[in-house]
Write the structure tokens for this entry.
Amino acid sequence: MNVLRIYRTVRARVLVPVTILFIMLANTSHAQNIEHALRLDDYGLTLPLAPSPRAAGRAGAFVASVNDVSALAINPAGLGRVRRLDATLAMHFDDPGTRSSLGGIGTLHTQGDAGLGALAISIPLRVYRGAFSVAAGVFRAYESSTRIQYTSFNAIDDMDEQYLLQQRGSVLAYYVGIGGEIASRLTAGVSAFALDGTISPLTQYTRLPRTTAGASQIFLTDDASLDVDGVGGRVGVQFEIVRGLRVGVVVASPIYVHTGGDALVEVVTIAAGGIGSISQSTEKRSVDYLLPPRVDGGLAVTMGPLTVEMNAGFTDWSRTIVQRHRPVDRFLQPEFHNTVDVRTGAVWSLRRWPVRVSTGFAIVPYPLRMLPFDRIGNNIVPATITRQRHMWAIGAGALLSSSISVDVAWQKASGRRNTGGYIQADHNRRVTCSASWRF
């Protein structure tokens, strides 16, 4: 009898509160991981940029045929085909835009950004058999220029809501690598990189009562400055099956990414009687991500002045780790899903002039299968892909002398997702140009 009484006391005073606390902590961790997963998509860390105009002009289809210093960031086996000292300098201009709406007509917002695209050098080293090249460089790996803005009416709370997210920033990848011939038609290479960059997201929203008496007006500003750091690497091979037919495979390692910094949060509340309050706080933010490995394969066919290449890349995004956990929804389904992107490019070298022109097309699926139904309420639900993200590209290059060449490329990527009431259509126009010296 005493044992039963002790058990009931322990259950009421210990087991039940501990169970409730565990459920609350689990729900909080679940909600935070979903929010961090959404930010990973907002930051642009799920869509790496093409490292050079030659790659951009063919929509990234360059795994099997890359043979310049940009192989550092594409397929390091291409370094084994560099026969002269190769130095390149590239610049870029981005014009990203987002049309977003919640239960109403959306507005298109764009904001341009320009800066360094790449600065790299590769040095060939003659050895007893074949050739090796060592290379180092910095490439713009990710771009984060986003502006999402909408106005809506929240019928549940009887509130008019206005939301704004605008952020700018970029992440550079500092590479070192080596590649070389290991057989007459086989090259292999390896490269490693460190990420470094800054992203500055600014979130603002207001909630204004429409008819509810006694409701308060709420104004929030969240201004953050985050440093982005990370490490990763890749290893690849290229093999010429027969003359004019080449294959390439590259495996990218998991990428560790850390974002951390300070955020100034200000909340202004004005009651119905005009009495208001202001609260300000500085929050420390730190999030660790582990992005999954990726495998790319390519086949390039050369027929006279024409080279056609097809690439496919697989990433199991469901293996993404956020704060040591895989983000899942309330039904324990992964927030991310597997993606296979397909890229096709063609390059035509003119016979009469030292000029080449290129074009390409790619389908690049969204890895995040969730979107917020309401960003203010942070109600994140499965999204419907109404137009899968795809990319068109054109490019051109010219040999100005025996050692100097220039290249330029234009890309346009667009896609559309929705969660019923919330619609988000993304597009990005990007221009890159470069000058290369080979001695």
In short: Residues 2-42 form the longest helix (41 residues).
